[in-house]
Amino acid sequence: MIRIAHMVGHRPSPSAIALAVAATLMGCDVGPDYHQPETSVPVKWDNAQAGLPDNFPSPEWWNTFGSPELNGLIAEAQRGNTDVAAAAARVREADATAQVAGAPLLPWLEADTYVGPERQYNLTGHERHHVLYQGALQASYEIDFWGKNRSALNAALSRADASRFAQQVVWLSTSAGVANLYFQFLGLQDQLKVARDNLARAQHTLNDFMQEQRQGIIPELGVVQQQSVVASLVAAIPPLQQSLATTKSALAVLVGKLPESLVLGSGSLLDLRYPAIGQGVPSELLVRRPDVQEAEAKLKAANGDIRVARAAMLPSFDFSLTYGLTSMTLSPPQNTLPPLATYSFLQNITAPIFQGGLLKGQLEQSKAKYQEALVGDYRKAVLTAFGDVENALSAVRTTAAEEAAQRSHVSAAQRSSGMASESLRGGTGTVLDVLTSETTVYSAQDGLVQARLAHLQALVGLTQALGGGWKS
């Protein structure tokens, strides 16, 4: 670095004048200005569904399922989830960093005071000591000629924006996780109810078979087979109870509570409403997804870093003004000299000459980070967003069809089971027909619960893929 200082009252050196003129001729724009990258946007969704409204979910989309208990869990997660709290702390940290980055744009003022003894010796060895009183105010200001400090501030503000978008990503993921776990909890309760109801019916059939076997109506083999059915239904209940406890624990952690403190009612998936969630317009997705906005904010920050790196290769200009008072008390004799005012006004020009390729390396590093943010983050986030919506729309459609098919399956299985029982009592059916029909009913009812759960979770997935109703 070469530093040229101009003090008031002295003529500037030729080098200072030459550098100032050269800096003026070079202009103030270090570029490049940020421009939003062009992205390919689909004209329409491949999996768009007829009948769905062409709008985005509500910001409080969980209300559309009609579950007060779910609404309460979401509210608890807002207050107690640790990831949400950490994301909020990162936002405050980013705001403070931006405040630090903006400080060089303003003048700096410092005060300096000194009181204390001083001892001096002359060449003959005589000592002189006194008490020195000194106070000074110093103001300094750097002219942001190339926009370096402004670019650093803008980059920090963009990173603060990115932290806010990241906070929304965390919240969207958390709220979707709460909804999915709650639906899973209700689904497990429904599966337990199905298993217990079928166990009760199987036990009733077993009792009938045992009575009929004693009367010689059916063979002992039929009783043994029915006992096997009952045993299999009994064995199916403990794993469901374990899964229910595990799901409750995971849900408690997500809302920020101990598992023993989380109290849930005995609800059912049948108590929930299916909201009509539209797929929206593809071109609007880029401003509705917080992860895409986060990636673009990081891209803006990387662009600002390039401007800062370029400006660092150019001269800088700053002023420094110092004003103060100095006085001293001599001993002996004890007398105080009148205060002496001191001041200085310096005009500094600092220009890099040779730093071993440091500044050029920093510039190339900033450019590479911008390309990484462009390709690795922003464009990937855009492609992922469109892919998520397509997958979610497909999942909503297929799970709805699966649920409808399972509902028909349950209805047919129940009719078949009734007919098999009637046939057995009428003497035209067999025990095997009854056993098979009972197993089919249980399997169909359990499959219907799982299909209903999959459809609800697909609706949550679509909501999440569409940005959860969030607006930048």
Give structural attributes.
472 residues; alpha+beta; Outer membrane efflux proteins (OEP); six-stranded antiparallel beta sheet; 9 helices
What would your notes on this structure say?
- The protein is α+β, with helices and mostly antiparallel strands and 472 residues long.
- Helix content is 59%, strand content 14%.
- It has 9 helices and 6 strands.
- The chain has helices spanning 14-26, 68-80, 82-102, 148-214, 220-255, 285-288, 290-311, 358-426, 431-465, and strands at residues 2-7, 108-121, 127-143, 316-331, 335-336, 340-351.
- Strands 1, 2, 3, 4, 5 and 6 form a 6-stranded antiparallel sheet that branches.
- α5 packs parallel to α9.
- The radius of gyration is 38 Å and the shape is elongated.
| The CATH architecture | Up-down Bundle
Mean pLDDT: 85
Specify the biggest β-sheet: 6 strands, antiparallel
Rg on CA atoms, Å: 38 Å
Strand residue content? 5-15%
What is the succession of H and E elements?
EHHHEEHHHHEEEHH
Give the topology.
Layout: E1 2-7, H1 14-26, H2 68-80, H3 82-102, E2 108-121, E3 127-143, H4 148-214, H5 220-255, H6 285-288, H7 290-311, E4 316-331, E5 335-336, E6 340-351, H8 358-426, H9 431-465
Antiparallel strand pairs: 1-6, 2-3, 3-4, 4-5, 4-6
